[in-house]
Amino acid sequence: MSYIVSIDWLQISCRGSVAQSSINFTASLTDLHNKIFSQVWEIKRGSEVVAIAQAAPVSDVVVKDLVVLKFENHLLYTNGLFDVVRCVLADFGLTPINITRLDLCADFQQFKYGLSPQSLIQSIFIGEAWRKGARVEVFHGADMKKIDRLYNTKHGGMVAYFNQVCNKAGGNITGYRAGSRSSAVCCYLYNKTVELRQQTDKPYIRGLWYRFGFDNNRDVWRLEFSLKGKAFKDLTLDFLLSADIVAFYNRLLRDYFIIQREDYGIVYNLDLLEKVAPIPSLENKPRKASGDKSAKLFLSRCVKELRRQHDSEDTAAPAIFDTLLIASSEYARQNDLHQYFYRKMCFANLNEYIADDIANIAHNLGNWQ
Q1: pTM of this prediction?
Q2: Which DSSP symbol is given to 35?
Q3: Do 286 and 82 meet the contact criterion of CB atoms below 8 Å apart?
């Protein structure tokens, strides 16, 4: 039994602006707005939308240079996610503050020992099992479109709320939520196959299941934790970029999804998912000097742009050059590609700007790899 750990929602608050030129991305102002922000921007890489940026807060209480970035769902299921996040921040000169929402999920087809997720939900529904500490519990049926209001009890709609059971049948329950949507941590256990079929199909998710050998003849279930950043002091971008995603998910599973049963007067916790060797869909490992091609390609483009700004007679060129040099140097350092970056700078006849760094590398390593 294996499960795939993924990020399904990533939203970051930043300081800065997207209303400026960028090397690798374009920002287009849309006609949208909301109660908090008067501007909504689409950030694209070529024709691909990679993020939505909300800017220009309406309230005077909120700092005027606050920008909230929500990265597109399809991007979250690629190994290049963290590279794109870094590049967007560096390109627009945005300073990350914290993560305002992070959804971590695990996809699987059964629990340990062959336990069916459907059976577990029904056990919780009829009271044979329960989530420890749950004050708000919501169940829903197979067709979400038939939910007209909270207490709908017909056609497999919403059947329970605040533990007040309205319908004892529960035969078609395909989803369960513990915690209110505004809670610091909200847990969801639901049939992902049914959701993709009834709502919006996402081929990149089904492709992920196929690559990791899931059985096409069985439904895939998802156990998801939705975290609000304000409740987690360590939920910062630096934490996410350096974290072991699988270990963090297992910590959430251990702390926030404790399912209990009682047999012969003894209450015990159910052991649902393996804590060892799950399959991560995202790997956030430090880049090696001989490693990631996309990171090297990005740095090569940065060096070309540095050379262009160096030769430009535009009055803004020196400021753009300095900003880009700082950002690209930091990106190279974080990805362990500083030697590669410095070599490219020398080939572009820009070595005078990194003379001190080159001397240090030559002294410490003797030569470049």
Answers
A1: 0.70
A2: S
A3: no
